[in-house]
Amino acid sequence: MTKRILHVVSNVSHFADPNHPTGLWLSELTHAYDLFAERGFSQRIVSPKGGRSPLEPRALKWPLLDASAKAWLNAPERMALLSSTASPDQIDPSEFDAIYFTGGHAVMWDFPDSEGLQAITRTIWERGGVVSTVCHGYCGLLNTKLSDGRLLVEGKRLTGFSWTEEVLAGVAKKMPYNAEAEMNRRGARYEKAFLPFVSYAVSDGYLVTGQNPWSAKATAEKVAALL
Predict the structure, then answer these.
(1) Is residue 64 scored above 90 in pLDDT?
(2) Which end of the chain is more exposed for a tag (fewer CB within 10 A), N or C?
(3) Helices then strands (H, E): number in the chain?
C-alpha cells in the first residue's frame, strides 16, 4: 500500500515584533516533499489553523534559495498547496504513516501549544508510525504527551536548531525561548553536529530529527528508510 506522509507548516508571519517577518523555511519542506514524491508516497500539508502558510523571506534569497525551493516557487500548483493547508480537525491521523514537522522560526510561536497537532502526533506515534522534525520543527514536540501522560520526547535522542546556531544567525535575542534548553528540560537527549550549519540527522526508533535547513534531505531519507 502507498505510504502517506503528513507535513506540518506554520501560519505565523512575523516575530513578536511585526516588523520582523518570518514563516516556513521553504527548502525544509521541498527537500522532503520531493524525496517522498520520488518514492511514490502520498502527501498532505497541515498547519495549526489551516489556510495560508507564509514563507520565510531570508530563505528565498541566494545562496539559501536552492533548486528544489526555486522549482516550488515557479510551480503554481505547488504554491497553491501552501495557500490552502488543512487544519488539524480536517485530518484523520489513522490515515498517515508519518508526520514531518517543518521549520522556520515561525513555528516557535504556533507549534508547541497546538492541541490539534499534538493529538495527531500522538495517534501516529502510538500506531507505530514515524514522527519526524527538521530544524525548529522540533518545537512541535515540546509539549506532546502520550496517552500515559509522559512526554513523547522524554529519554529520546533528538536534534534541532541549536542555540549556537541562533547566536551565529544573529537572532538569539529575538527568540521567545531557547528550544534546545527546553528540550533538555523535558528530558530529551539533545545532540548536535560538531560544527554548526552542517547536515545532521538523528534516528531513535521511529523518531527522526534533523538539526537545521541543510538536514532536510537526510531527515527525509531516514524517514523513507523506516517506511
Answers:
(1) no
(2) N
(3) 8, 8
Portion of the chain with pLDDT greater than 70, in percent: 100
Q: Take residue 210 and report the three cell numbers written for it.
A: 534533523
pTM: 0.98
Domain 4-226 carries which CATH code?
3.40.50.880
Q: Give the DSSP letter string of 198-217.
A: S--EEEETTEEEESSGGGHH
Closest by CA to 7, choosing from 114, 93, 100, 130, is 100
Contact by Cβ (8 Å): 42, 3: yes
Q: Which stretch of DSSP H or E encloses residue 122? A: helix 115-126
Please give the DSSP secondary-structure letter assigned to residue 161.
S
Helix (H, G, I), strand (E, B) or coil at 152: coil
CA atoms within 13 A on the CB side of 108: 23
pLDDT computed for residue 60 by the predictor: 95
Provide the pLDDT for residue 197: 97
DSSP string, 54-114: -B-GGGGSTTT--HHHHHHHT-HHHHHHHHSBBPGGG--GGG-SEEEE--STTHHHHSTT-
